[in-house]
Model the fold of this input.
Amino acid sequence: MHYLLTGATSGIGKAFLDLQLTQASNASASAPIFTVIARNAAKLSELATHCQPYSCHGINLDLAHPELIAPTVTEALKDLPPVDRLVYCAGITRIEAVTKLTYPKNLEMMSICYFSLVELMRVLVALKPESHLLKVAVVSAMAATTGAAYTVSYSAAKKALETLVRFGAQELLTQNVFINALAPAYVDTPMLKFNRLIDRNFAQNVTQVQPLGLISPQTAAQELAELLESTSCTGTIRYLNGGMRY
Done:
């Protein structure tokens, strides 16, 4: 099984990688192959060590620049087996007033959360044999549905991602591609650093809107893995709400 991962250096992506490593160590199936895209070369090196004894290939690429994906990824994958699973966990968060949002800030958000996913899928579909099954799981957010003040840029980018999942699924199915998304509420990852800066007691206070409290990355990763392996749905958004109303 060949996994291509983004956002695997922390948070849900890292938890998903760890889940696969644990399952691989307990299974008799063939050893998995991991290819990880990240902009931090040092973290890629750490992941390669972390994944031993399994094969982990790093692609040093900043997803804020989707125009670099086709040449970089095509070259990196040319001597590897076709990708079986794309897990797209890349994302950034931005808490900022609408009047402070500039075009470059919005472009960065859309590039990382949406444009690069589209470009990456375009490349993978072009590279794979026509009959090869590619399953795609992406991490959205409940913010795409619930929204909140100062999260317009983030929510808009995640909604664009969900639009690709919902309406692109039927097109992609004709090319032997399944695509689904997980939309969690607040997950206890480094992406909450802005929330914690604004509210030092955020983890406790979040229960006012999310009664079950912060979701662990491991819980989200398990849900993502189950969605990824489904043979009965494509174009689905699965909500992991922590009790939040939507």
